[in-house]
Amino acid sequence: MLICIHFQMRLDLTILLREQKKKHSSAARVISTIKYLHNAGAKLVLISSWSPKADSQLLKLERVAEFLSSELELKVIPVELGSGLEQSLMEDGHNSDILLLENLSQFKQEQANCSEFARRLSSGVDIFVNDAFFQSHKILASNVGITSFCYSSIAGFHFDEGMSQLKKIIKMNKWPYYAIIGGANLAGKAAALQFLASRCDGFIFVGDAAFQIMHAFGLPVPMELVEQESLEAADMLLEAAKARGVKIVLPKDFWCVNDHYPLQMKTFPANHIMDGWKPVDVGPNTLEEMISVLSRCKKILWIGAIKFGASNQESAGTSKLAAILYNLSQKNCDLIVVGKQACETFVGKSSYVMADLIENASIVWEFLKGRKLHGLLALDRAYPFELNWDAIYANTTLPLVVDVGSGNGLFLFRMAKMRKDWNFLGMENNEKLVSRCLDHVSQSGMTNGYFIATNATSTFQSIVSSYPGDLVLVSIQCPNPDFNKTEYRWRMVRRSLVEAIADLLASDGKVFLQSDVKEVAVRMKEEFMKYGKGKLTVVHDLEDSTSHQDRWLKENPFGIRSDWEQHVIDRGAPMYRLLLLKSSPSG
Predict the structure, then answer these.
(1) Which of 52, 93, 164, 499 is the most buried (most CB within 10 A)?
(2) Is the Transferase keyword given for this protein (predicted)?
């Protein structure tokens, strides 16, 4: 019997509409994902939003489908959201065709991450593939909400490469490492620049950002060029750079235009721009110093425009900088270019590019600010955590206990104190709670307990699979039910988590489930029985010392209660407990 797996792929069609299919471009990677899935026999549904700015002729769904058919050399069928999608997925005659759903930008539910809209998008879909990397910092129905309704959610080739490029920015592997910072709105980038100050050996400021730093140094700057809201951010950045010894390079001169005669240009020293003239580009002396500094670098990040806000013309400095960096990239210098204008200028220097190009600067700034990439966090295939287990635990050969949704950590702390022969790991989504727990671990000198801020539903497999010892116990206690949203009611216990636990649990390992809400406990039991791959069985106490007649455990088998469990018992309410056992292969 041939089983057809339905895949839904979120992509950024704007990339395909405006880019040429160069070998290592974003467009080429997106196309590779589509063709890979199609060649593997997947029934593929493409979802995206696209802007009319890309091509005014490509507004209608049918025209975009025709464009994609040409680009992919595959048949792409336009489909409207609703019954049209469901019908197309059921028709055997279209199994080799690719479906394209209508433009998501016309639905306000997309931006609102509406759960009902996400459910409609996922209708008939088994596996979700996110290849819209440039949208991953946003919370959308098509990249976050949809994952609640699919069996599995994974990343495409473009998304994968995007994450690798972000990691290269923060990786401290080559020195000297300089960042060329351009653009405006220094205040909005303050957190990102503070982070870069902890990674880079020097900053070269160009564009409008340069004036803010010059003003912070006390250099004369025309006040109309100073962003008042950026004064504090500039001062704090200078303090951080000074504390770490980060060198700061500022423009020495500027090309300026006359207010009354825009075609008249003249160079002025950076500290002496005459009235009636506005800077539009960096001057020759500035470029000369940049060449001198950058020629010694082994790693360079270029992010932000070189030209200034007052300029409507193409910056000659941008072109010259691109030429400089291109030559350096051929000489064992790692180069990362961020921003549409910078990438286009750099690519124009040669068809053979030895650099990492990221056209969307917004996602890079958000990443450097420490913001969550919600599209990434929603994926089941989480990126491997680089955990040094030997630095976390005194003895990594000890059996491991994982408490999923560890909350304030009281259960884990008490268990770790009682069982020194086990290591304990708390996985909790609330970063503030995890921070408090880690403070307690540090202050108490505990060597067999640790906490990670993460969504265990997505990351359990990638984190726990790297632990050197055996996983002997997993506990899930009192997940918080949201009865206003049916699809999120038991969102902690999902198929991906259950399957990961069933696979990683050692023989004779146990799973402890409990809740004070019977419906939640029943649902958790059903999920583990349904998706446990036949490896898990319910443990009953036939001597009736700890079991109710309906087979819920009467007492906590570990003798240690969580704070919520104690609260429930104190008010005289029941707890619904269950213990599952993983049978040995021979059993």
Answers:
(1) 499
(2) yes
